[in-house]
Amino acid sequence: MSNIKEIQEEIVDEFAMFDDWMQRYEYMIELGRNLPLIDEKYKIDENLIKGCQSKVWVHAELEGDKLVFTADSDAIITKGIVAILIRAFSNQHPADIIEADTKFIDDIGLKEHLSPTRANGLVSMIKQLKMYAVAYQTQLN
Amino acid sequence: MSLTTEHIAFDIEKIRKDFPILKRKINGYPLVYLDNAATSQTPQQVIDVIVDYYSNYNANIHRGVHSLSQEATEKYENARISLQKHFNAEKSYEIIFTSGTTHGINLIASGFTSLLQEGDEILVSALEHHSNIVPWQMLCEKTGAVLKVIPMNEEGTLIYSAFEEMVSDKTKIVFLNHVSNALGTINPIKDIIDKAHSHGAAVLIDGAQAAPHIKADVQALDVDFYVVSAHKMCGPTGVGMLYGKEEWLKKLPPYQGGGEMIATVSFEKTTYADLPHKFEAGTPNICGGIAFGAAVDYMNSIGFENIAAYEQELLEYATGKLLEIEGMKIYGTSKEKTAVISFNIEGLHPYDIGTLLDKMGIAVRTGHHCAQPIMDFYKIPGTVRASFSFYNTKEEVDRFVEGVKKAKMMLS
After folding, report:
1. CA A10 vs CA A13, A104, B203, B338, B391: distances in Å
2. How confident is the model at residue B2 (pLDDT cuts 50, 70, 90)?
3. Which segment of A38-42, A76-80, B62-66 scores lowest on mean pLDDT?
4. In this structure, are residues B302 and B349 in contact, taking their beta carbons and an 8 Å threshold?
5. A52–B349 C-beta distance less than 8 A
6. PANTHER family of this UniProt entry (chain A) (predicted)?
């Protein structure tokens, strides 16, 4: 099982294969379609991260000593980025999730989506993933 | 050589040169700016006025004995006269400078607090910007008045017969927009004003979305209050206008206390200044007001009839092209509408379409456009809204339509 850093590098390498934004977005949309969907029963308001325009639901569950995330969004591009974040952070130790940075998003040319001025809720989503990690880390201790 | 504004032909190439921002590239593509209903762009003529103000006569107004202050005061008052002429107000002091439409609405809603009683009714239309409903809800909470909503139909047009049934002698104020920001629908405000007046109710019109396209004549409309923002009419942000009939402005109490709005002050009693200063407490946005005047003059030099005719042409052209796209649904199909197209494509989220258009250098608005009640009516999370201005071109419409097609292909 790769660690967060290795997965992030892997994602950066994949995106490096594309020459232009259209191909990058097409790939991201593809990733969005394959996102491990959240169980319908978790698609409730309590799991909703409110962005201004697209909705994002996230559910976290501990499996052994690892934290597993599932998520969904009503907008496909948002879903693509959610898929990328989940791939990097899911199935990892909470302590590692707390430590991890998100610089790789810049490296794959999607920086604009993580700007706090962007109305898509992704900044809040990262915060939420980390908060889950903090909560479950406390539980593990 | 004298220039007569009404005979200048509509020269789109020349007009575009007035707007430096239109030369920008976004994400490597020439900018196609179709978010004019949110903020219009600023012509060089207005930018020059702003630079001139700060370079040559920046000073506080109305109270200085020195030359700069007098110069600034004169320019500021001239801007008021430009607005008076443009909106055909009878008196220049019926024009109050505000920080924008929202300020104007709050000023009126707050002023009515002392004029309303429990059981009085306030009518607002279902097409309102949702933030503009809030001041009336607050007014109702304070006074015990009742807020009633004039419904709209599937086309996004107000149901006039419903309004006729709702309005009564209990109605004290009717508030609606001249043009809907989310759909572009032009409301039949003249009929509504006349009907409301027959019951003794005052009418406040939010003209923010109409002002860039339609020259409203406040005397012909016989409207009691009309509010607009400069930043939708080629002017700067943070400044706007409230027109109010003299009799009403005299009746309403001041909105804020401060400098300019007072005549005499002692600890026992303060007498308020005359109009318009009664409603212009503190140092106003002097540069903004002057630039607003320049913006209105600029638009008049092009001519509102020319603007309206050209924009209608763009609207028809864009509507026709968009409707060729499979799954296209346009919201707001009233015959009377400004150059705004609010739409969705079946199965696609407006946010995704807007994001991809931005990658292609095309600026549109996506979301609920602060008109949540309208989105609830259509049972949708939001729309993509393209809003056109007189400096847009058919070539830009083509690029926009191609962009939408490309986005659809990528997302489907």
Report:
1. 5, 10, 63, 50, 46
2. very low
3. B62-66
4. no
5. no
6. SUFE-LIKE PROTEIN 2, CHLOROPLASTIC (PTHR43597:SF5), SULFUR ACCEPTOR PROTEIN CSDE (PTHR43597)
pLDDT surpasses 80 at B1: no
Contacts of A53 in chain B (CB under 8 A): 350-351, 366-367, 381-382
Of A53, A55, A74, the CB nearest to B367: A53
In this predicted model, what pLDDT tens digit does every residue of B9-18 receive, in sequence order? 689 999 999 9
Inter-chain residue contact B349 with A29, CB threshold 8 Å: no
The minimum CA-CA distance between B405 and chain A, rounded to whole Å, is 14
Give the pLDDT score at B169.
97
Cβ proximity of B178 and B131 under 8 Å = no
| Preferred mutation among A18, A19, A24, A25 to probe B, highest tally of B CBs within 10 A | A25
B31 burial (CB, 10 Å; 0-12 / 13-18 / 19+) is middle
Cα–Cα distance, B245 to B197 (Å, whole number): 13
Where do the structural domains in chain B lie, given as residue ranges? Answer: 3-36+303-411, 47-301
Cβ within 8 Å, pair B366-A53: yes
Q: Sort out which chain A residues have CB atoms less than 8 A from B356's CB and list them.
A: 25, 77
Q: Is A52 a catalytic residue?
A: yes
**Which chain B positions have a beta carbon within 8 Å of A28's beta carbon?**
none
Fold type of domain A4-138: Sufe protein. Chain: A (3.90.1010)
Give the phi and the psi of residue A77 in degrees, each rounded to 5.
Answer: -70, -40
Model confidence over B118-135: pLDDT tens digits?
Answer: 999 999 999 888 878 899
A52 touches chain B (CB under 8 A): yes
Q: In the predicted model, what is the mean pLDDT of chain B?
A: 93
Residue B7 has pLDDT above 60, yes or no: no
Q: What is the value of pTM for the model shown?
A: 0.91
Task: Decide if B367 and A77 are in contact by the 8 Å CB cutoff.
Answer: no
Contact predicate B41/B22, CB 8 Å: yes
**B154-191 pLDDT tens trace:** 888 899 999 999 999 999 999 999 999 889 999 999 99
Given A45, A52, A64, A138, the catalytic residue: A52
pLDDT in tens, B102-116: 999 999 999 999 999
- Does domain B47-301 sit in CATH 3.40.640.10? yes
Question: How many CA atoms lie within 13 Å of B166's alpha carbon, on the beta-carbon side?
Answer: 22
- Per-residue confidence (pLDDT) for residue A124, from 0 to 100: 80
Name the residue of chain B whose CA is nearest to A33's CA. Answer: B411
Per-residue tokens: B199: 């019951």
At the fourth CATH level, which superfamily is domain B3-36+303-411?
A: Aspartate Aminotransferase, domain 1 (3.90.1150.10)
Query: With an 8 Å Cβ cutoff, is B383 touching chain A?
Result: no
Q: Is A54 on the interface with B (CB under 8 A)?
A: yes
* Contact assignment for B355 to A22 by CB distance below 8 Å: no
pLDDT band for position B4 (cuts 50, 70, 90): very low
